[in-house]
Specification:
- This protein folds into two domains: 151 residues, no CATH class; 52 residues, no CATH class.
- Helix content is 0%, strand content 42%.
- It is built from no helices and 16 strands.
- Strands 1, 6, 7, 8, 10, 15 and 16 form a seven-stranded mixed β-sheet that branches. Strands 2, 3, 4, 5 and 9 form a five-stranded antiparallel β-sheet that branches.
Length: 209
């Protein structure tokens, strides 16, 4: 059922914040919003592009998350080859990252502008799956290559039993009754994120007029 619950994303609704993902991560619930600040542009090669901004609102929990704008190219829309969704929207997020203060930034002027490119165009009824790419926690508290001496363990994937570090394994049950294993260990190439995560997130948007 949850795969059919979707946000409505209106491209012509300029300068208003629209939600694209709601999730809870290591004790903090937050949502990410997108704001289109220009109309969609169509290019000669069939691509569509849109200038937009993103905003993260922490709602509950002890840890502060924030958007990581250190590499703008990491905010990207990727065309998917499967028949479930049309695009995957990647959003980089860091732990212990301060967000702009809306009371101090007039019209959110302090938020960087991102140019999203949709290689096959973006049309009504297209669907977008938003995925979070989490940056590693600061290196002084998290060492993914030496978890035994790391000051931080990811509670979704590891837990401590005395001097032993145990890894948590997950299975995803399919409609036909079979199951498949999903990622259970930290992969330095992938990091921690909603791709392959055992968490259930509201992250599907559908384009409407």
């Amino acid at each position: 059922m949850h795969e059919n619950l979707r946000f409505n994303l209106k491209l012509e609704k300029l300068n208003d914040w629209q939600p694209v993902i709601a999730t809870e991560y290591i004790g903090t619930f937050y949502m990410v919003y997108i704001r289109f600040i220009s109309t969609i542009k169509e290019h000669s090669g069939g691509e569509h592009s849109a200038k937009c901004q993103f905003y993260l609102q922490n709602y509950r929990g002890p840890i502060t998350f924030g958007l990581d704008h250190s590499k703008k190219d990491d905010f990207a829309a990727h065309k998917l080859s499967d028949d479930m969704f049309d695009y995957r929207l990647n959003i980089p997020i860091s732990i212990f990252e301060k967000n702009p203060d809306p009371d101090q930034a007039k019209e959110f002027e302090g938020i960087p502008v991102v140019n999203l490119v949709f290689t096959s165009g973006l049309y009504e009824k297209n669907t977008i799956e938003t995925e979070v790419i989490y940056r590693d926690p600061p290196s002084n508290i998290f060492n993914p290559h030496d978890l035994k001496n790391s000051k931080f363990l990811h509670p979704l994937y590891q837990f401590r039993e005395g001097e032993n570090i145990q890894h948590i394994h997950y299975k995803k049950y399919l409609k036909d009754g079979t199951s498949v294993a999903i990622r259970s260990k930290y992969d330095p190439k992938e990091g921690y994120g909603t791709i392959g995560s055992p968490t259930c997130d509201a992250k599907i948007s559908e384009i409407i007029k």
